[in-house]
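Encode chain A's predicted structure.
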Amino acid sequence: MKRFILSATAMILVLMAAVPAFAAGKKVLFIDSYHEGYAWSDGVLKGAKTGFEGSDVELQVIHMDTKRNPSDDFKQSAALKVKSVIEGFNPDVVIASDDNAAKFVIQQFYKDADLPFVFCGVNWDASVYGMPYSNTTGMVEVAPVMELLEQLKNYTPGSKVGYIATDVLTAHKEEDNYKTKFGLEMVSYYVSTMDEWKKNFISLQKQVDILMVGNTAGLAGWNEDDAAAFVAANTTVPSGAIEEHMAPFAMISFVKVPEEQGFYAANTALQILGGTSPKDISVVTNKEGKLYVNLKIARALGIEIPYDILGSASAVIE
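Encoded structure for chain A:
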C-alpha cells in the first residue's frame, strides 16, 4: 500500500536543480484543455510554474475550457483560438495539458512540425493521437485503478464494478482502458446533470459490488455539499475514486498528483530549450499518488478501515 504514496514536495526537492541561464527570455505557451478553477488543471499549472521558477522564461497560459463545453464544435473553435495565439506569441516550446489539447491542437495542426511540444495529463495512452511525433514528448497519466479495486475488494464478497462520470472524452477513455488493459467488465453510466448523477448513483448500488466514482467536473447543477450528504445517505457498496477532488464522494481514493505532470513538463521544456530534441526524450508515465480515506462513508457502510491503511493516508475525511 505505502509504495503508492509519494510526496510531490519531496519529488520537487529531489529533482529541482539550478535553472540554466540559456532559458532566460525564452517563450513557453501552456495550453490548458480545461479552465481556471478546475482543481486538476490548477495543480498541473502550479507544478509547471514551480518547474520554471528562476528561469526567467516568459510563460503564457491559454485555457480551452473544454470541460465545461464538451461539444466537438466548441473544441474545434477553442483549438483554432490556440493556433492563433501560437502564431501571435511565437513560443519556443509549447506545453499541452490533457487530452483535448493533444487531440485538437497537436494532432490536428502540429504533427511533426518544427515547433516542439511537451504533452502532459494525456490519459493512459498517447498513441491514440499518433504520438509521439518527431516534435513531441511528454508524460502519460495513468491511474492506479487495479490497486484501488484490490483494496476495495477487501470490503465486499463480490467483484462486479460500476462506473459513473460526466459524459466527456476523458471519462470514456478511462473506462475503455479499464476494459482493454485490465479486462474489467463494468456497468457504466455517463451523465450530464446532477439529477441524472443522483438517479444513476442509486441505480448502481443495486447492480454492482464496487462503485468507481468518476470525474464530475463540468456536470450541470453540481453542488459539493449536496453531493457529499447524498452519498453518505445513499451509499450501500464500497466506492473508490482516482481524482483528488472526488475523495469526498468515495470511501477510498488513490489519486494522481497533478503537480507531478506540470513539474515534469516544465523541466522537459527546459531540456528542449537547452538543445535536446523532443524525439530524444522518452515518453514517461506518472509515478506519484496519494491515499484518501473517507470515514464518513465507511461508517455509513459499517466498515472499519484498518489502522495501517489510515496510517498510510495522506488525508482522512471525517
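Residues 1-18 have pLDDT under 50 and may be disordered.
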